[in-house]
Every structure is written in C-alpha cells, then in structure tokens.
Amino acid sequence: MFPLYDTIPSIRKPFVNIMIIIVNVIVFAYELMISSMDWSGEVLEGFFRTFGFVPEKMFYAFPIVAMFTHMFVHGGWSHIIGNMWFLKIFGDNVEDAMGHFKFFIFYITGGLFALFFHVIFNPFSPYPLVGASGAISAVMGAYFVLFYYSRIVSLVFLILPFIVEIPAFIYLPYWFIIQVLNGLLADVTGTGVAYWAHAGGFIYGVIVGMRVRKKRYWY
C-alpha cells in the first residue's frame, strides 16, 4: 500500500516540514556530486561512515555529531524519494497540531529515539545507519493519534493496481506491525533496512501525540 495523499489539508503553511525536505534534498545532491567524482566509491563510503551513525563506534568513539546528521543522509534515489514523500503527506498536519518550533524539536528527538531503538537491537553493527525514516516514523505515530479519523488515499497492488481510501487508524497500525514483523525477520536473515528504527520512531510519535492531543483537546 503506497500512500498518495491524505484527506486532511493543512491549515498553516508547513514551513518546517518544507525546510526539512529541502535540507535532505541538498544533502543528497551533495552525495550525488561526490559520487560523480568518486569512481572508487571510497569517498562516498567515508561520507556515510562519518555522517551516518555506526553503532559499534559507541564502544571507542561515541559519534555525537552523527546522532543528528544521519537523519539527513540517504543511500539512494528510492531511499530519499520514499522518505520525503511520506514526510510530505504526514508532516504538514502534525506541524499544524504542534506548531512550527515544537514540530522541529519533535522531529529531531523522534529521530534520536528511533536511533536509540535501532542501537538496542543492533549494538555491534558495523554498518552506518542513514536516513530520515526514523524521524518520519515518529511523525506517522503522532499523525495516527492526532488524525486517526483521516483517510489515506493509497495505491494498492493486487492482480492490478487500484486506488483506495484507507482509514488512518487502519493504515498506520498495519504499517507499524509490518515494521515489527520485518524487524524480527531481519534479526534472523539480515537486511539493510532499519525496521527497529521505524518501530521505535512510531512508538515515540504515539507517546508524544497522546500528550499533544490531551493538552490541546484534539478529538
């Protein structure tokens, strides 16, 4: 189920959400520039290992900077396009609910919590964690709590592709369960996707979303 758009328009211009997308695109453009001049791939690999978060580094040189920079580095076209598309769909409404500054703080802390969750399950991993998906998962978790009544217009592939409106209170928990199941499977088979970061980010978003909803009387 690939989301196309949701049924709730944003009230205010989502300046922070747009800014985050722009920063991610700029960083990815820089990666493409490095790649175009780096035939061996060593420079780009060094970039990922410097600005991505490598869990095993915690035991000899805790990468504080990478805790933040990993959220703005992506591993390829499908990686960044998918992440930015999800952020575009779900981020504007959550920014509406929280306000610009609080949304920015929430986004960053959501990415940090997702990173923490990933490290719990992969403490000795030598592979750099990159991508905004952990922080975006937090946005999706908050969206689930604050806008459960929304509908997610999605492209579904069965025998033929078709478009269907799926209630957010079905779409988002289903997405979360898939991340957990894939995380359990990845623990056995191994994969390049940080499913536990997705799950952790979503949990954080639900917790924060519940506090926002209670404080602002969202129904």
Automatic annotation (TrEMBL):
One of its GO terms (cellular component) is membrane. Residues 66-213 form the Peptidase S54 rhomboid domain. GO terms for molecular function: serine-type endopeptidase activity. It is found in: Membrane. It is a multi-pass membrane protein. Belongs to the peptidase S54 family. It comes from the Bacteria. It comes from Fervidobacterium nodosum (strain ATCC 35602 / DSM 5306 / Rt17-B1). The chain crosses the membrane at residues 15-39, 59-82, 103-121, 127-149, 156-181, 193-212. This is Rhomboid family protein. Keywords: Hydrolase, Membrane, Transmembrane, Transmembrane helix. PANTHER family: PRESENILIN-ASSOCIATED RHOMBOID-LIKE PROTEIN, MITOCHONDRIAL (PTHR43731:SF14), RHOMBOID PROTEASE (PTHR43731).
